[in-house]
Design brief:
The chain contains seven helices and two strands; from the N terminus they run ββααααααα. It has 231 residues and is mostly helical. It has a two-stranded antiparallel ribbon.
Length: 231
């Protein structure tokens, strides 16, 4: 039983694994999302009559904007492209796993680590953009200079936790379904597949929310400081 799509290798060259299921299905998801986005937005209109897909798109964007504002209490436009892309990619990967023969890239530790690294580098990018380099870097010295190594370790550890959490949840669902297929090949696997889809949607939401919390916390300190100075 293969626990990860990394173990499904399609092409080797001189002993090196060049193409595996993780890479293939990651590109499949990206192509599907790009084509779907192009098809939906090419006929987008601001009139009273809109297509069903435009309605779905506007509803999705509105819901993501609403969640960003509720969590961060900041204007969502700055964070929407990054957080929205994270959520939609993970959501699509988990949902498409219901298709026979499709291997969700999120069941691979290499994918979840890559997503967590995107968040890891996004935190200082957004923090510096909102606060400036001096103010952001100074936050690593709070409350004292002695906290610098601990703050750096904290950044690394939460990145590791973010990747392992998503990977663990997706892999565990795959393993349970595989075991039930062996023991009870009819009814229970169907139920577990449905539960797996629900879990996949929840995991996409949790990953996006945690990424948002990590990113917006970098600018929240600056806002609180400004409020105190104003008082």
């Amino acid at each position: 039983m293969k626990l990860s799509p990394d173990q499904i290798v399609y092409f080797k060259w001189h002993g090196f694994e060049i193409l595996n299921a993780t890479i293939v299905f990651t590109w499949v998801i990206m192509i599907v999302l790009v084509v779907a986005s192009w098809l939906i937005t090419k006929k987008i209109t601001s009139g009273s009559k809109i297509s069903r897909w435009q309605n779905v798109l506007e509803t999705t964007v509105s819901m993501i904007n609403s969640q960003i504002y509720e969590v961060s209490r900041q204007e969502p436009e700055l964070y929407l492209p990054f957080i929205g892309t994270l959520f939609i990619f993970i959501f699509a990967a988990n949902i498409l796993s219901a298709i026979p023969g499709f291997y969700a890239p999120t069941a691979s530790l290499s994918t979840t680590v890559a997503l967590a690294l995107c968040v890891f580098f996004a935190v200082p990018v957004f923090g510096i953009a909102r606060r400036g380099p001096k103010s952001y870097l100074k936050s690593y010295l709070q409350p004292t200079v002695l906290m610098l190594p601990f703050n750096i370790i904290g950044e690394i550890s939460r990145t590791l936790a973010l990747s392992v959490r998503l990977y663990g949840n997706m892999m565990s669902g795959t393993v349970i379904i595989a075991i039930l297929l062996t023991l009870v090949p009819l009814f229970f696997p169907v139920v577990m597949q449905v539960l797996g889809l629900v879990t996949g949607m929840i995991q996409a939401y949790i990953f996006a929310i945690l990424a948002l919390v990590y990113i917006t916390s970098a600018s929240q300190i600056h806002q609180d400081k400004n409020k105190q100075e104003g008082e």
